[in-house]
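AIF family member 3: structure tokens wanted.
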Amino acid sequence: YQGCFSIFMEVKVELSLLEKEKEVDGLSPNGKASPFADCRPNGALGHGSDEDSTPLRLYHKPRDYVEASICHVKDLENGQMREVDLGSGRALLIKEHGEFSAMGHKCPHYGAPLVKGVLSKGHVRCPWHGACFNIATGDIEDFPGLDSLPTFQVTFPALQSQKRSKPMARCSAVINSSTGFSHVLIIGSGPAGLVCAETLRQEGFTDRIVMCTMDKHPPYDRPKLSKVCTETLSTKLRQYRIYQECCITECRDVKTRSVTFDDGLRMEYRKLFIATGSKPKPMNYKGKDVRNVFHLRTPEDANSIARLANNKNAVIVGTSFVGMEVAAALTDKAHSVSVIGIESVPFKKALGEKVGKAIMKCMTLPFCFSVLKLKEVVLKSGKVLRADVCVIGAGSVPATSFLKQSGVHMDSKGFITVNKMMQTNVDGVFAGGDVVMFPFPQRSNKKVNIPHWQMAHVHGRVAALSMMGRATEIKTVPYFWSAMFGKSIRYAGYGDGFDDVIIQGDLDELRFVAFYTRSEEVVAVASMNYDPIVSRVAEVLGSGKTIKKRDVETGDISWLIDKGSQ
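Answer:
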């Protein structure tokens, strides 16, 4: 639906009515020519044919609009954002370099108010999880999340919707589930696999894509499982089905480009994307088959944990982020929650001892640091913990065992090594997400593993573009978040090997910023109750600039704090 600004003595946002519409061929939601307007069925990746083009979804342009007076043109200075009420909904009004623009006011990922985010160089970065949106088009430019934002300049959905899915080309191939061939085969239905599939369609690829997974569900928002733990948990990312439920038993013949499933089906492919994620780290203990012991992996696991823990005794094994998030989520549901770990301070390796101790202050849980064997839960000390439900969150390993003898190169820990285009050592085989070691530009292309939800999105997009012959390098700042006991931790950068932590703010009040430095350079940042500082640092690091240790030691970090939002 159409909207625009009339700038005279006041800024006005004009929104269209829904009653009168007419079709406009070849227009995308940002008013530009659709990238799929001249798409044709292609027999090979990245190449067109002379056959008739597949009809694509049409976009609609309304004939009429309504008008709302927002503010005086001088009320907004350059670099400022304002959330405005238009009667039928709200929008984010932006002024940058003298130009006004408007788009959805909430991040489509988890609904963060973007007015509290960071405006810089033509995009807004979310204050919670770091996703970036182009202010001219509303398109998502950095992850996490799948959807873009509606823009109120040319064409957009109703204001009540605060997200927009990019248009996707339709598949021109004849769909037959028994066909043992797919132009693109995606193994895994996590964020890397889903973004890979969607990017291919968004970029005009019309041949067959098959996504296979061991999950019983279409792609879902796995980070919510440990943070929310409710019996009514709903985490579906998309409503449509683009996958088939199956299990890969072997992938031994990459030279002939084929995989074999557990039901005997053999599928050939032209391009393969491996995004199987991680699996729980194996532990040796008695009681592995007890029904009330869980590795949190699926919505069913989360729902069962919540049900069994209700007014009962819960034991969490492991002080990983997943383990501690589950413990926090159960504190107001369970009769008791006990956490067992081998470290005296949680998150010490990732966040440092000072931050770990500060986070412990908001925890009222009994901690036991020992090794367990299971019946109730019996510790080495002899202490017995009653356990109506037990959740094991003691780390993970890459789910790549099916690739043994495949010819795909893996390191000693089972991680797949890829180049900057997410391609493995085998032509036509790509990988991404938790399973890969990839060259990271911010560490001089040293190969690293960064198992973040946001990073998996990036890998999926880079792999898809590489498959289509549009090679692009990873340009992102790692960003992750955790939520426990009503508090949120945000983190950006790559802090592995940090040698010092500079704290600004008040650890006792849990309102602080922690800068992680390595050789006199800030390599990562974490914060609690200090938004949007982490997104601001991500913006600086993402621009290629360096933040020196001396820049954050003085105590004056006002230069990092965005003062342009209202």
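The longest strand covers residues 266-274. The domain at 486-560 is CATH 3.30.390.30 (Enolase-like; domain 1).

Cheers.
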